[in-house]
Amino acid sequence: MSEELISKKELLDLTGISYGQLYRWKRKDLIPEEWFIKKSVSTGQETFFPREKIIERIDRIIELKDEASLDELAYRFSNTIKDIKITRSYLVNVIREDIIIKFEEIIDVQNVYEENNIFALFLYNKLINLGSLSLLEIKEIVQIANKDYKLIDNKEYELIIKRKLGVCYFYINVDKINLFNDEDSILIAKININELIEEIKKV
């Protein structure tokens, strides 16, 4: 199903921002380049945007712009945790130590957690707290997350976990496009990866 689009003129009228603000935010990477969609119309070419995404993003920028610089907002909106490392002794103040101990049984981490380890740990914590997955199922998901974290870019990701005939399976929706619609399965969880990364940035 294709996304609903909104024209640039309609967007500016709806949000009250100026043409200059819109393109300044684009230059500062607050609004992704790929959201600016050129389409042919009867009068020539016009710029359109994915309606839901752009309105939500502009609302967030307006809400946060007085408490953070544009560079800080660009980092917050990105799916990058930069090149950070966090010590285990710091993480125990954020996530229960018994959960960290269990995590370290499946992911080989010493005293310093790299970006991918941090991401996998936060995901592990979220999955454990669901209370509806076995440790073996969680292990499989988290090991893939730890290994493939580097593949995450600035798209929108949602981890979908389902169960069918007692068997757990999972997949990723990208940019809210649902490729699978298995009505016979039971939905266990939807985890927004972008929101998870935003949580990590607050640590």
Describe this structure as you would to a colleague:
- The protein is α+β, with helices and mostly antiparallel strands and 203 residues long.
- It contains 9 helices and 8 strands.
- Helix 7 packs antiparallel against helix 8.
- A hairpin with a 2-residue loop joins strand 6 and strand 7.
- The strands form 3 sheets. Strands 1-3-2 form a 3-stranded antiparallel sheet. The chain has a 3-stranded antiparallel sheet with strand order 7-6-8.
- This is DUF4004 family protein.
What is the overall silhouette? globular
- Total domains: 2
Order of helices and strands: EHHEEHHEHHEHHEEEH
Mean of residue pLDDT values: 90
Helix proportion: 40-55%
Give the low-confidence spans.
none
Beta-strand content: 15-25%
Number of helices: 9
- Structural class based on helices, strands and sheet pairing: alpha+beta
The radius of gyration is: 20 Å
**Number of strand elements:** 8
Largest beta-sheet details: 3 strands, antiparallel
Widest sheet: strand order? 1-3-2
Structure keywords:
single chain, 203 residues, alpha+beta, Multidrug-efflux Transporter Regulator, Chain: A, Domain 2, 2 domains, three-stranded antiparallel β-sheet
Write a compact overview of the structure shown.
By secondary structure, this protein is of the alpha+beta class. The protein has helices spanning 8-15, 19-27, 51-64, 70-77, 88-91, 97-106, 115-130, 135-148, 193-201; strands at 5-7, 37-41, 44-50, 86-87, 112-113, 157-164, 167-174, 186-192.
How does the SSE layout of this entry go?
Elements: E1 5-7, H1 8-15, H2 19-27, E2 37-41, E3 44-50, H3 51-64, H4 70-77, E4 86-87, H5 88-91, H6 97-106, E5 112-113, H7 115-130, H8 135-148, E6 157-164, E7 167-174, E8 186-192, H9 193-201
Antiparallel strand pairs: 1-3, 2-3, 4-5, 6-7, 6-8
